[in-house]
Structure formats: structure tokens, C-alpha cells
Amino acid sequence: MRRGTFRDETVDYAAVGATQAPDLMQYPPEKSVPAEESWRIGSGQARFESATESLLSWAPLRGAGLSLADIRPASGSGYAGVAYDSDGAPIAPSRRDAEQRFDAEGTPYVSAGATVHVTGRLSGYRADAELRVILAVEEPRRTAFALGTVGGSVVSGEELFLVEWRDNDEVWFTVRAFDRPVSTLYRLVPRFVRGRRRRLFRAYLTAVSPLFAS
Predict the structure, then answer these.
(1) Could you give the 3-state DSSP secondary structure of residue 10?
(2) Among 80, 211, 67, which Cα is nearest to 145's?
(3) How many CB atoms are closer than 10 A to CB 170?
(4) In what order do the strands lie in the sheet with 67-72?
(5) Mean pLDDT of the chain
(6) What is the pTM of this model?
(7) Whole-number Å distance between alpha carbons of 197 and 34
(8) Are residues 59 and 208 in contact, defined by beta-carbon separation less than 8 angstroms?
(9) Distance of alpha carbon 47 from the chain centroid
(10) Is 40 helix (H, G, I), strand (E, B) or coil?
């Protein structure tokens, strides 16, 4: 079911795609700390499309004060990421041959298989890691992508960003993640993992929905 140049061994953890598991919070990958938050950010098609645009142009990360460098889309075409249904069974991805898109500054949009180097500091927590987009989905009422750590981070794991336009016309933004401490400090003081994740979640939400800050 994998396509293109994506290889599971390029990330530094085994549970690729586990942020999509419905029981992530109850049964996270071994030695990992799970986290999940959902927020209503508006309603209607226009709000969904605006949030989708923000999501695919890396707004959550940029809005958190993180810098993106060396964004490298996957070579070749056809890989759509690893996905699972509501029962946790893998879904064979459909072929995606769309041309790579760019924002007004020429930065490549999120695309499955792409890699990016993220650096920065948020409320005293450092970020310096190579990440890979292990999933990218664009559907009429659902947009999502997931990032997996390749190396260099103080934690190892994955985070999923999801925007949904639900049947009741509400638009929701969800972030799910699991982090396994890598650095000695984070292994010795697990609360740092949770603190880092809480601050990231709040910064992501503020970036996608600026009204949250007020």
C-alpha cells in the first residue's frame, strides 16, 4: 500500500500512523505520552476552506513561532500517505498526481512524503528536528496531515493536524500526538513532555484560529 519514495524506516519510531487510531489516548505506542485536543473554530464552507489553506501552508507550525527550512517534497508522485478506517484497519491510498503547490512566498505546501527541518523555541521549550509528512489528505469536508520525527528532536513521535467541516455545519480543528522522550532531561522529567505539548497545542490553535487568543 506504500507508494513513491516514502519508507517507514525514514522516521525514528515504529507506530507510523498511530495518531489516527481511535484508541490512541487509551493505548498509545510503548513509552509514549499521548495528547489530543479539539476546538470549534467556526462554521460554514468559507471557514473550512480558510482553515484548510492555513493548514496546508504550515500555519500551525509557523504560528507557533517555529521556523521551517529545507522543505523537500517527495521525489516522484503517487504517494498519498498511510491511512486507517474507524476500526483501525489500513486503507490503501488513492493515487495523487497533482502538481506541487506553493504559497505566495514560494514555500511548498504540505505534501505526503515531504521532509522539513523545524527549529525554534516556545515558552522555553526547544524545537530542532527533521520531520516527514507521513500523511496528507484533502477531501470535500476533511483536510489533514501528520508529521513524524526523523531525528534530532528531544522527543520521538508523531502529530496529526485535522480540520473537519461537520454535518451540522461546524468547523473543528483537532490535533493528536504521541511523544516518546529521547533526551535525558525529558526521560528523567516526564512533565516536561506534557508541558511542551500543551504549549504547542495552544500555539497551533491560535495560528489556525486567531480569535482564540482573545
Answers:
(1) helix
(2) 80
(3) 15
(4) 33-43, 170-181, 155-165, 142-151, 125-139, 115-122, 67-72
(5) 81
(6) 0.81
(7) 9
(8) yes
(9) 20
(10) strand
pLDDT band at residue 3 under the 50/70/90 scheme: very low
Q: List Cβ neighbours of 4 (8 Å cut-off, separation of 6 or more).
A: 74, 75, 76, 77, 78, 79, 112, 113
Q: What is the pLDDT of residues 167-198, one digit of tens each?
A: 999 999 999 999 888 877 778 777 777 888 88
Number of CB atoms found within 10 A of residue 99's CB: 6
The average pLDDT across 60-76 equals 84
Output the nine-digit C-alpha cell for 30.
510503548
- Rounded distance, CA 52 to CA 96, Å? 18
| DSSP conformation class of 102 | B
Is 63:55 a contact under the CB 8 Å cutoff?
A: no
Report the 10 Å Cβ neighbour count for 198.
Answer: 14
Pairing of strands 33-43, 170-181: antiparallel
pLDDT category of residue 149 using cuts at 50, 70 and 90: very high
Which residues is 208 bridged to in the sheet? none
